[in-house]
């Protein structure tokens, strides 16, 4: 399988592990139009017409991707921030983070049915559920999804998924949602460090700087509350959640490689099945040992639980499959933009104090996150851009000098005929 850079989302890249997806690109870049000296006179008009038509089609496709990108960013930001705030609200009535994690993860089972519904609506060659399932099972190997594959290639990721979400939700109980959401953004720095050491990915100085900024931001965030035990525990929990999410992504790339949309949907549904079969016993044990206890099932805020699960499912769907309609970088921006949204909500609903240290820590972590979004060849693109700007300035200066030089000559040429007479 070819490895493609993609996103793995925790609850998806923010708390659910983001899957590596493959996408076939059917569009070609339009060639640059030939210069005046290269174009032949008879075909000049036709060539320029074709070039302009292709450029127009290209710009339309880019505008469409940007439009969808804005929509995806808003959806990622609102669903992630909404799920975080709703979880905080739920814990006021239902203090059971692991049970909430288990309940929301069960909804992963819907990934493959939703994908198949989309396949039936959009695909020209429609397949039965059984045919589509068998085709997607090839992702797990030649023998498909066997019992051995289930326990060796799916179960470990199910455990990591549960730990990622549980630690994140437990952290929300300890500290405010602004700190939790911004600290979870360090997940991207952890992914880079693990990829560099385990997968031997390309070394990039700018990403090392981003990782240092993330670590500095964590230390400053701890200092912002004066190293109180309650705050330190909450920060440790969310950093642990970010680490589990990063481990999920790197292991997925190492063991399974990349996945197509149907394969990713099936994999996430398998995680839901694993959760139902093997994790269900843990909330039951926690209930009877009164670690997570509630007086009556009628007191459970089912609306909040279902709302949180729907928002989290929406977040994971958009983050994992949004690559079909827009750029991955735009989707990642939705995660970091949820931080100011949570900050505004916390400002009006809690006693959070935005002192100088906390604000600087948020800015540093956000800057590190944005640096990690830079493509691998960003320095080459920057050099090309600066070179083009220099060439354009020289051309404009040369044209300006030529116009000044031609001014007196044109006047003398016009005067010569009259002078000769």
> Unreliable stretches, pLDDT < 50, 5 or more residues?
1-45, 410-421
Taking the sheet with the most strands, its summary is: none
Shape: globular
Look at the structure and give the mean pLDDT. 79
β-sheet strand percentage: under 5%
- Helix percentage: over 70%
The rounded Rg comes to 28 Å
Strand element count: 0
**What is the CA-CA span between the terminal residues?**
83 Å
Output the helix-strand order: HHHHHHHHHHHHHHHH
Structural class: mainly alpha
Number of helices: 16
GO biological process, one term: thiamine transport
Domain EamA: 68-222
Biased composition (Basic residues): 411-421
Pfam families: EamA
Descriptive keywords:
16 helices; 73% helix; disordered C terminus; 421 residues; disordered N terminus; Solute_c_fam_35_mem_F3/F4; EmrE-like; 0% strand; mainly alpha; single chain
């Amino acid at each position: 399988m070819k490895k493609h850079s993609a996103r793995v989302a925790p609850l998806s890249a923010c708390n659910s592990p983001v899957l590596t997806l493959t996408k076939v690109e059917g569009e070609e870049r339009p060639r640059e139009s030939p210069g005046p000296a290269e174009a032949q006179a008879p075909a000049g008009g036709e060539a320029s017409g074709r070039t302009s038509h292709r450029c127009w089609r290209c710009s339309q496709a880019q505008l469409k991707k940007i439009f969808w990108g804005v929509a995806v960013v808003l959806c990622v930001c609102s669903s992630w921030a909404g799920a975080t705030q709703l979880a905080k609200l739920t814990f006021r009535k239902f203090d059971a983070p692991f049970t909430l994690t288990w309940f929301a993860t069960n909804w992963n089972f819907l990934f493959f049915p939703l994908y198949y519904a989309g396949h039936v609506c959009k695909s020209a060659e429609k397949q039965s559920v059984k045919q589509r399932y068998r085709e997607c099972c090839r992702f797990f190997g030649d023998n498909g999804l066997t019992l051995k594959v289930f326990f060796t290639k799916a179960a470990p990721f199910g455990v990591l998924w549960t730990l990622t979400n549980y630690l994140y939700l437990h952290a929300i109980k300890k500290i405010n949602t602004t700190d939790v959401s911004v600290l979870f953004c360090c997940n991207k720095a952890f992914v880079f460090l693990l990829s560099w050491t385990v997968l031997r990915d390309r070394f990039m100085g700018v990403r090392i700087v981003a990782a240092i900024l993330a670590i500095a931001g964590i230390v400053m965030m701890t200092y912002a509350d004066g190293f109180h035990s309650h705050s330190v525990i909450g920060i440790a929990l969310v950093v642990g959640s970010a680490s589990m999410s990063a481990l999920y992504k790197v292991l997925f790339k190492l063991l399974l490689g990349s996945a197509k949309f149907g394969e990713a949907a099936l994999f996430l549904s398998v995680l839901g099945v694993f959760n139902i079969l093997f994790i269900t016993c843990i909330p039951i044990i926690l209930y009877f040992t009164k670690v997570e206890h509630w007086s009556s099932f009628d007191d459970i805020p089912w609306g909040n639980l279902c709302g949180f699960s729907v928002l989290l499912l929406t977040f994971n769907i958009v983050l994992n499959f949004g690559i079909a309609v827009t750029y991955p970088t735009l989707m990642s921006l939705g995660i970091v933009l949820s931080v100011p949204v949570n900050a505004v909500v916390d400002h009006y609903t809690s006693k959070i104090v935005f002192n100088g240290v906390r604000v600087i820590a948020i800015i540093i972590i956000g800057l590190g996150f944005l640096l990690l979004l830079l493509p691998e060849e960003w320095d080459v693109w920057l050099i090309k851009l600066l070179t083009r700007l220099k060439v354009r300035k020289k051309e404009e200066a040369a044209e300006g000098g030529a116009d000044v030089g031609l001014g007196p000559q044109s006047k003398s040429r016009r005067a010569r005929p009259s002078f000769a007479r």
